[in-house]
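User: quick one, fold this
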Amino acid sequence: MDEKHTKHRKKGGIKAAFEELVAKLVAYGEVMVIYIQKNLQIYIRNLVLSSVWIFTALFLIFLGLIYISYGVYLSIQKFLAAGDPILSSFGTGFGFLIFAIFFLSLVLKKK
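Assistant:
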């Protein structure tokens, strides 16, 4: 087979070799396009999923900070009163913060 291949190449010369090179480059390009399309879809899907979870965790942190600031406001306003709304506000705020930090650590561990 090698002899046939070399004879064919000698017959066609540089033009046949160039046509073979172009055909191989086109085939390689087609394979690369398919590979990029497949992996790009996976990459974009993973990016969207992780960005949604990170946005959710950051929103929960923001919500926790709002509850904590509301608790500080109530403690200043009520000063030494019974404290039920203050304790509930602090508890809710810290609960959101702990949950959001735990959630972020889970999301960032997957990467």
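User: anything notable?
Assistant: The chain has one domain: 2-110.
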